[in-house]
């Protein structure tokens, strides 16, 4: 079938009242980025739906890209037809024929927004239903549970016909809910946490703590590869790489061993918060999962969280590991995450850190430690990379969009 456009339904955005324009704008940007490799397409954004005009590009490939975009509820490849009954009949017939398999049923779902159109809804049903029944031998009508549901929409400017309703990724368009910093390790959890937050419309920048020579270039590359995967969602993503060796060495010297993990996490949070402030983010995201390891008990979170009152988003907090792994596989980060690497924390941190640290104790230990200059130095020497997805080199016209 020669579809000439793809109809995009917004779903959740439609309920957002005054913010709608912003949501539609962000979605339009996401669509442009996702379809950057189809130069001939055109996007038409309207209040309650969007059209991608195909202009000869490959419809299946476009749909594949659109299915990953947050903020799209569903998609339908469609054709535009002039308000001419003969043309409409032929278009309806060829659309149904292109999908029909022997023994299948169909129905017509008319929607008549243009009240001046010559046929009312039952007229549309009879005219086109009748034509299809006459011309496809064996096809039957089933209004309750049809195999093919031909939607005919009569709008003031033209008629649109479509049959398929393809489920989109749901969620909200990225960037419509502000910006947050993702603490990105090389593990399985944090990329999934980033993905789920992006799905709620949050734009993310990643922060990674790197301790050369204890952690190798290979583990840095691993984090860059994870960032590339997440960057596919919005075309690019900033990754801040924080040199953490000096701080870890000082912690080892100054803090009792059983509290070094708690202090290390507090430093990571302080530094991330400082980068967040500079980058004008509103929250910090981690891959914490309740009870998984010593730093992720409620007591630990309480003691670590003490260093900031910036909201900390922990989308995986209550999830089961198997469910996290399933998402990691779906979004293609799992295979990268399981590559062997040295984590900056496991190298310095004792094998049995305190699982129930006391906030007052860690505050006391840190009170002898003049750490502020170390934090400033780490922030100043942080390397900021702009990560782009592997597969798509963005054309320069998108450069200044963000
Ligand atoms: P992950 O699978 O994301 O590494 P994890 O289960 O291994 O998580 P931890 O190593 O305790 O758990 O880390 C908890 C969270 O702290 C991570 O999800 C991540 O958000 C953050 N984090 C840990 N190490 C780093 C790092 N080197 N750089 C940036 N963030 C980190
Ligand atoms: Mg980890």
From TrEMBL:
Keyword GTP-binding appears in the UniProt entry: no
InterPro entries: Rossmann-like_a/b/a_fold, ThiI_AANH, ThiI_fer, ThiI_N, THUMP_dom, THUMP_ThiI, tRNA_STrfase, tRNA_sulfurtransferase_ThiI
Origin: domain of life: Bacteria
Gene Ontology molecular function: tRNA-uracil-4 sulfurtransferase activity
EC number: 2.8.1.4
Location relative to the cell: Cytoplasm
Coiled-coil intervals: none
Positions of transmembrane segments: none
Principal subcellular localization: cytoplasm
Entries under CDD domains matching the protein: PPase_ThiI, THUMP_ThiI
Keywords: ATP-binding, Cytoplasm, Nucleotide-binding, RNA-binding, Thiamine biosynthesis, Transferase, tRNA-binding
The protein's annotated pathway: Cofactor biosynthesis; thiamine diphosphate biosynthesis
Residues that hold ATP according to the record: 183-184, 208-209, 265, 287, 296
Catalytic reactions of this protein: [ThiS sulfur-carrier protein]-C-terminal Gly-Gly-AMP + S-sulfanyl-L-cysteinyl-[cysteine desulfurase] + AH2 = [ThiS sulfur-carrier protein]-C-terminal-Gly-aminoethanethioate + L-cysteinyl-[cysteine desulfurase] + A + AMP + 2 H(+); [ThiI sulfur-carrier protein]-S-sulfanyl-L-cysteine + a uridine in tRNA + 2 reduced [2Fe-2S]-[ferredoxin] + ATP + H(+) = [ThiI sulfur-carrier protein]-L-cysteine + a 4-thiouridine in tRNA + 2 oxidized [2Fe-2S]-[ferredoxin] + AMP + diphosphate
THUMP domain ranges (all copies): 60-165
Presence of keyword RNA-binding: yes
EC primary class: transferase
Reported function: Catalyzes the ATP-dependent transfer of a sulfur to tRNA to produce 4-thiouridine in position 8 of tRNAs, which functions as a near-UV photosensor. Also catalyzes the transfer of sulfur to the sulfur carrier protein ThiS, forming ThiS-thiocarboxylate. This is a step in the synthesis of thiazole, in the thiamine biosynthesis pathway. The sulfur is donated as persulfide by IscS.
Family designation: Belongs to the ThiI family.
The protein, known as: Probable tRNA sulfurtransferase
Organism: Neobacillus driksii
Gene name tied to this protein: thiI
């Amino acid at each position: 079938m020669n579809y000439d456009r793809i109809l995009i339904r917004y779903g959740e955005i439609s309920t957002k009242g005054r913010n709608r324009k912003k949501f539609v704008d962000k979605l339009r940007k996401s669509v442009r980025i996702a379809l950057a490799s189809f130069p001939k397409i055109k996007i038409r954004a309207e209040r309650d739906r969007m059209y991608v005009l195909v202009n000869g590009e490959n419809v299946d490939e476009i749909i594949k890209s659109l299915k990953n975009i947050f903020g799209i509820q569903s998609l339908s490849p469609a054709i535009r037809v002039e308000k001419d009954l003969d043309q409409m009949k032929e278009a309806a017939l060829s659309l149904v024929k292109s999908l029909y398999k022997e023994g299948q049923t169909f129905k017509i779902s008319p929607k008549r927004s243009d009240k001046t159109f010559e046929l009312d809804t039952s007229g549309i049903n009879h005219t086109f239903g009748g034509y299809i029944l006459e011309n496809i031998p064996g096809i039957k009508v089933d209004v309750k549970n049809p195999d093919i549901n031909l939607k005919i929409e009569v709008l003031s400017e033209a008629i649109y016909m479509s049959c398929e309703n393809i489920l989109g990724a749901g969620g909200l368009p990225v960037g419509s809910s502000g910006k947050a910093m993702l603490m990105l390790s090389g593990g399985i959890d944090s990329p999934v946490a980033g993905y789920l937050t992006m799905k709620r419309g949050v734009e993310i920048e990643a922060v990674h703590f790197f301790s050369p020579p204890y952690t190798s270039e290979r583990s840095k590359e691993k984090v860059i590869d994870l960032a590339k995967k997440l960057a596919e969602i919005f075309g690019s993503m900033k990754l801040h790489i924080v040199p953490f060796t000096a701080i870890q060495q000082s912690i080892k010297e100054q803090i009792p061993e059983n509290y070094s993990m708690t202090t290390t996490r507090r430093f990571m949070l302080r530094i991330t918060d400082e980068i967040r402030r500079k980058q004008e983010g509103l929250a910090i995201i981690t891959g914490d999962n309740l009870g998984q390891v010593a730093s992720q008990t409620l007591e630990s979170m309480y003691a670590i969280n003490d260093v900031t009152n910036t909201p900390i988003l922990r989308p995986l907090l209550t999830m089961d590991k198997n469910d996290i792994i399933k998402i990691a596989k779906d979004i293609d980060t799992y295979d990268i995450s399981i590559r062997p690497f040295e984590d900056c924390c496991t190298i310095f941190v004792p094998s049995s850190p305190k699982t129930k640290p006391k906030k007052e104790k860690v505050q006391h230990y840190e009170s002898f430690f003049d750490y502020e200059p170390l934090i400033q130095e780490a922030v100043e020497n942080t390397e900021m990379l702009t990560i782009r997805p592997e597969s798509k080199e963005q054309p320069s016209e998108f450069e200044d969009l963000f």
